[in-house]
Amino acid sequence: MESSKVIQAIYNDDDVLLSAVKKVKSEKHHIEEIYTPFPVHGLDKAMGLAPTRIAITSFMYGCVGLTVSILMMNYIMIEDWPQDIGGKPSFSYLENMPAFVPIMFEMTVFFAAHLMVITFYLRSRMWPFKNAENPDPRTTDDHFLMEIPVNGNENEVKKLLKETGAVEINLVDKDH
Amino acid sequence: MYTFSNRLKIGSIILIVAGLLMVTYGFMNSHKSLEDVKIMLAEEASAHGGGHGDAHAETATHDEGHEEISGHGESESHAGEEAGHGDEHAEHVMHQIHNRPWAALYVAAFFFMMISLGVLAFYAVQWASQAGWSPVLFRVMEAITYYLLPGAIIVVGIALVAGDHIFVWMNPEMTNPESPEYDALVDGKSSWLNLKGFVIRAIIFIGGWSFYRYISRKLSLAQDQSSDNKNFVKAFRWAAGFLVFYIYTSSMMSWDWIMSVDPHWFSTLFGWYVFASMFVSGITTIALISIYLKSKGYLEFVNDSHLHDLAKFMFGISIFWTYLWFSQFMLIWYANIPEEVTYFVTRIEDYKLPFFGMLAMNFIFPLLLLMNSDYKRIPWFVVMAGLVILVGHYVDVFNMIMPATVGDRWYIGIPEIGSVLLFLGLFIFLVFTALSKVPLLAKRNPFMKESEQFHY
Q1: What was the ipTM of the complex prediction?
Q2: What distance in Å separates residue B124's CA from the closest CA in chain A?
Q3: CB B330 to CB A99 under 8 A?
Q4: CA dist list (Å): B260 to B253, B403, B404, B427
Q5: Structure confidence at residue B48 (pLDDT)
Q6: Surface-to-core class of residue A172, CB atoms within 10 Å of its CB (0-12 exposed, 13-18 middle, 19+ buried)
Q7: Rounded to whole angstroms, how far apart are CA atoms B149 and B251?
Q8: Which residues from chain A sit within 8 angstroms of residue B336, using beta carbons?
Q9: Tens-place pLDDT, residues B154-212
Q10: Does pLDDT of A21 surpass 50?
Q11: If both were cysteines, with which of A20, A87, B120, B440 could A164 make a disulfide (CB 3.0 to 4.6 Å apart)?
C-alpha cells in the first residue's frame, strides 16, 4: 500500500467545517471523506462531488413500477378472471383503465421509493451486519471529521488544518 | 422603476382592437335565422355521405345529450314526435350558434380573471406563511392582481348581459310551472340559482377580493416607507383572514359562474378543481412576467433559485390539478349515474380533442418537461412549459363552458381567438401599467434580505 496514512481533523461546528473545506480545496488538497452527524447543506458542492444520479434511477424504477402494475392488473382483472363490476365487464384494459389508475400510481410510487432507498444503501456500501466505517464515534454525536491523505506533506497539511479551526488533528495509519 | 415601454403598450392596444373587431365579427356572423340553420343542417347531412338513416341516427344521439346537458327546457316527449322533430332540432342548433360568441367571450374573460384571482390567493399565502423566498416577487404579484377588479366585473357583466345565452337558468320561463319550458330541477334549485342572488353574491365576492387587494397593496407600499414592521404584521393578519374568505368564495364563485351553466349537473369537488386551475395559471403567469422583466434588465434581484421555486410550484400544482380532475372524473365514471355521467359523455363524444388534449397539456407536458431539476432554472424552458400550461387551462375553461352552451357546434375560430386577444391585450395593458407605478423592489419587507440571498 502506498499512502495509507491519513490526517483526521475534527471540527465542532458545521459552518467552520464548511469554510475549512473551501480553504482546503483552494489549497489543492484532496479530501478523502467527511463524516458528519447530520447532512450539511452545500457540503457536496464545496467538496466538488459529482451531482447525485439517484433521481435518474428513481425515474427508471418508477417506469418499472408503472409497467408492472399495468401487466399485473391486466393479468388479474382482464385475462385470468374478468369480473363484472358496476356493469363494467372487464374484457378490455383500456376501457377499464380509470379504475386501475390508483393502482398504477401507487405501484409507481412504491417501486420508485423502495428501490431508490435500496439503491442508495448499496451504493453507499451499507448492508446488514456490516461494520461501520466511521473512524470516530463522536461524529455520530456532535463532531465533524475531515479525512485527508498525506503524501509526505504532513506538516504542511497539519498547519493548514490548524488555521481552519480544527479542534483536534490526528495522524492515523489506516490498515486496509 | 419600470417604465411601460411604448412597444408593449401599442402591442397591447393592437391586441385589444383586433380582438374587438374579431368579437364583433363573431356576433354579426352568428345571427343565423332558422331557415339558414335548416339549409346548413341539410348540407351537413348530405356532406356526411351517409344515407338518411345515418343522418337521422346522428340527430337522435345529439338530442339525447342536449336534453340533459343544455336543458333548454325541451319537453321529454319530443324524441317520440317524428313530425316536429326536424324543426326542433334546427331551432336548438340555431340557439347554439347564437350562444357561441357569448360563450367564447365569457371563457376568455373568465380565464384572465382566474389568473388574477389565483395570483391574489398565492400572494396571500406568501404573506400568511411569512415565506422568506418570495418577497422579491411581491410587486409582480401585486401588479397581476390589479386586473382582478376590472376582470371580475367584466365576467359578471358578460354573464348578466348574455343571460340565458350562457346560463339557461336565467330564463324566467324555466321556473314558471305554466310554461312549456318549465324545468322542475332548475325550479328546485332556484333558491340559490336566481338572478338576485347571483348579483348579490357576485358583489360580495368581488367586493371582498378587491378590498383585500386594496388593503394589502396599501400596507405593502406603506411598509416601504416605514421604520418599523407594523404594516407587515397588519398585512399578515389581513392575509390570513382573506384566505378563509377566499376558500369559501372561490368555491361558491365556481358554482355560480361555471357550474351553473349545466344546472342539472353538480359535483362537490368542482370548487377545488377550479381553484387548482386558477392557482397553477396564476403561478405560471408570475413566472412568465418575471422572466420577461428580467430579460429587459429589470428585477436584477431575482435569481434562478426564485425561478426554480416558481417552476416547482408549476410542476406540483399541475399534478395537484390532475389529481382533482381525476378524482372528479373517476368517481363519476365508476358510479355511472345517468344524471352525473352525461357531463363526461358529452365531453368525450363531442369534445374528444380538447378534452384529452387538455389532459396532455395540463398533466403530461408539465410532468415530463419540468421533472428535471436543472430544467426548472432555464428561462426559455420554463416559458415553453408555461405557455403549454396556460393554453391547457384555457382549454380547461373552454371544456367547462362550451358543451353546455354550444353543444357540438364548437370550434376554435374567430370569436374564440378574438376574445382571447381582447382580454390578453387588456390584461397586459393593466398589469404593466400597475407595474410601472411603483419600484419593483418591496425594499422594507422584513424578509427582503433572506429573499435576495435565497439559493437552493
Answers
A1: 0.80
A2: 29
A3: yes
A4: 10, 12, 10, 26
A5: 62
A6: middle
A7: 18
A8: 86-88
A9: 999 999 999 889 999 998 888 888 988 899 889 999 999 999 999 999 999 999 999 99
A10: yes
A11: A20
Q: Which three cell numbers stand for residue B358?
A: 387538455
Q: How far apart are CA B379 and CA B185, in angstroms?
A: 50
Evaluate whether B436 touches B2 at the Cβ level (below 8 Å). Answer: yes
CA-nearest residue of chain A to B371? A59
Average pLDDT over residues B273-294: 96
Given an 8 Å threshold on Cβ–Cβ distance, is B330 in contact with A86? Answer: no
Partners of residue B373 in chain A, C-beta under 8 Å: 55
How would residue B72 be classed by pLDDT, with cut points 50, 70 and 90? very low
Alpha-carbon dihedral of residues B215, B219, B222, B227, nearest 10 degrees?
160
Would residue B130 be called left, alpha or beta, if left means φ above 0 and alpha means ψ between -120 and 50 degrees?
left
Interface test with A, best of B312, B328, B330, B332 (most A CBs within 10 A): B330
Helix (H) or strand (E) holding A144: strand A144-149
Q: What is the pLDDT of residues B383-412, one digit of tens each?
A: 999 999 999 999 999 999 999 999 888 989
Q: What is the DSSP letter of A151?
A: S
Instruction: State whether B373 and A88 contact (CB < 8 Å).
Output: no
Banded pLDDT at B77 (limits 50, 70, 90): very low
pLDDT at residue A73 greater than cutoff 60? yes
Q: What does the pLDDT average to over A87-116?
A: 92
